[in-house]
Design brief:
The chain is an alpha/beta fold. It has a single domain, classed as Aldolase class I (TIM Barrel, Alpha-Beta Barrel), CATH 3.20.20. It has 13 helices and eight strands. α4 packs across α12 and α11 runs parallel beside α12.
Length: 324
């Protein structure tokens, strides 16, 4: 549906050289065909996969989860328990892969880092006045630097949706650039930056496409649908638009950017639909935890139930696995 709009590094530089150039570029993107987008999603959702592929897909989906707890009632004990589950999702089956990351508030990063030591599971931290994004830039940068200093491997920032919707694209761009710089550590190591667009507040599919390209132009390592605190959160149509954006961005610039739908994805059936969409839209390079994630708190248990059913022939029941 979209076509590449950049053809060189010079064109990329020119596209963001001034506020006016950035606006022209974003408003010059092809409009989203809403009917076509939703029809494409319906077609992809109807695909079925065979047993061996389903087994592989369940394990892949588990390995792509950012297992998340972002509640005011979070405790050190809850975060430690979540880390243990992320490392070994099914204690009865050592062949079950670990999740990709544990996602927590900045003040829980140290606890998560300790709980995941040596596991290879990443620590992701929300930042920049999550979930509203309503804070000064100085506070957002302090929030980010503190999480990175405590050991966060990944930062999930929120854009200023008010600024975006009012057309202040340069302000949003500059904030992403500044947060990306704040993700750096001495020695050149840098936390990966996921940019949350809160698509449920962007109102139109065209805005989702514009926000996706703006985020990538500013240096996002991942683009992410939602905080999970606003409805609708992740949907297949907005994720399709984002997958098209990263595909076209790679074709235009040579740089891969990841995608993370977050919020509301709670069943294995839905997760597999997303994986089919990833493969058919962006390509199998994105079928990897380095490039596609699920932000979820409830999805893991359903994946584990379906996985147990396929290996034993029996449903384990929802009480077999811990509630998070």
């Amino acid at each position: 549906m979209a076509t590449p709009v950049l053809t060189s590094t010079d064109a990329l530089r020119d596209a963001v050289s001034t506020p006016a150039a950035l606006r022209r570029f974003l408003h010059g993107l092809p409009g989203v065909d809403q009917v076509g987008c939703e029809a494409r999603v319906a077609t992809l959702s109807s695909r079925s996969i065979k047993t061996t592929s389903k087994q592989w897909a369940l394990d892949l989906a588990i390995s792509m989860i950012d297992l998340t707890t972002l509640e005011g009632q979070d405790t050190l004990g809850k975060v430690r328990a979540l880390c243990a589950k992320g490392r070994r999702p099914d204690p009865a089956d050592p062949t079950c892969p670990p999740v990709a990351a544990i996602c927590v508030y900045p003040d829980m990063v140290v606890t998560a880092k300790e709980g995941l030591d040596g596991s290879g599971v990443q620590v992701a931290s929300v930042a920049t006045a999550f979930p509203s994004g309503r804070a000064t830039l100085d506070i957002k940068l302090q929030d980010t630097r503190a999480a990175v200093a405590d050991g966060a491997d990944e930062i999930d920032m929120v854009i200023d949706r008010g600024a975006f919707l009012s057309g202040s694209y340069q302000q949003v761009f500059d904030e992403i650039v500044a947060v990306k710089q704040a993700c750096g550590r001495p020695g050149g190591d840098s936390a990966h930056l996921k940019v949350i667009m809160e698509t449920g507040e962007l109102a139109t599919y065209d805005n989702v496409r514009r926000a996706s390209w703006l985020s990538m132009l500013a240096g996002a390592d991942f683009i992410k649908t939602s905080t999970g605190k606003v409805q609708p959160a992740a949907t297949m149509p907005v994720t399709l638009i984002m997958l098209e954006a990263v595909r076209d961005f790679r074709e235009a610039t040579g740089r891969m950017v990841g995608v993370k739908p977050a919020g509301g994805i709670s069943t294995a059936k839905d997760a597999i639909k997303y994986l089919v969409m990833v493969n058919e839209t962006a390509g199998d390079d994105w079928l990897d935890p380095h490039w596609f994630r699920f932000g979820a708190s409830r999805l893991l248990n359903d994946l584990l139930m379906q996985r147990t059913k396929m290996t034993t022939g029996r449903y384990s029941g929802p009480d077999y696995f811990t509630l998070d």
